Amino acid sequence: MNKSAQTSVPINPLISNRWSPRSFDLDKEVNHDDLLAILEAGRWAPSANNLQPWKFTVGVRGDEVFEKIASTLADFNKLWAPNSSAMILISAEVMKSDGSPIHTALYDAGIAASLMTMEATSRGLHTHQMAGFDRTAMKEAFDLGKNFRHVAVLVIGTLAPADLLTDALKERETAERSRKSLSQISNFH
Ligand SMILES: Cc1cc2nc3c(=O)[nH]c(=O)nc-3n(C[C@H](O)[C@H](O)[C@H](O)COP(=O)(O)O)c2cc1C
């Protein structure tokens, strides 16, 4: 199954080869060094004023953090995400300690997440981000204080065959990927 993006012009294969599967290999663990490097990639993301307004809370399958993150997921995500090897809760510092807002916090955290997906892809791993989780339950499970907002969960794992999924999930897994055209999203095309 080739899920590489069919781009209108050639782009870096690291970007075109990234996609978000739901079939992850339950027998595979993520290597400690790979996980560290993925976090390091996020650490070196650019951010407004170099504030680095993010926190990455890491759970590895089998540990308590992983179980806690998994327990907050929306039912649909609970169907597949627990088979991944690691989950990273990405939280953004939306307010400084003096109470003033960090307007770019979500943007900055998104860049960090994006770089983490690239690092993971370069290591032959697959990622899938999720915003489908219970925000109240997540806040109770991981309270980083009132200045932080939990933004997304990034799962990391090894791709498994789509056949291992239920029919409904398999249909999504094998569906053609689509995007708006460049002319729809940009004045330059
Ligand atoms: C912030 C964010 C939240 C997402 N939330 C979910 C989710 O809760 N469940 C899910 O199955 N996929 C989720 N996705 C995955 C998107 O559906 C997916 O990235 C999109 O369809 C494009 O597919 P691709 O990543 O394979 O290119 C999310 C992606 C992002 C970036």
TrEMBL record:
Transmembrane segments: none annotated. InterPro entries: Nitroreductase, Nitroreductase-like. Pfam families: Nitroreductase. Keywords: Oxidoreductase. SUPFAM superfamilies: FMN-dependent nitroreductase-like. The keyword Cytoplasm does not apply. GO terms for molecular function: oxidoreductase activity. Residues 15-72, 84-157 form the Nitroreductase domain. Signal peptide: none annotated. Belongs to the nitroreductase family. This is Unannotated protein.
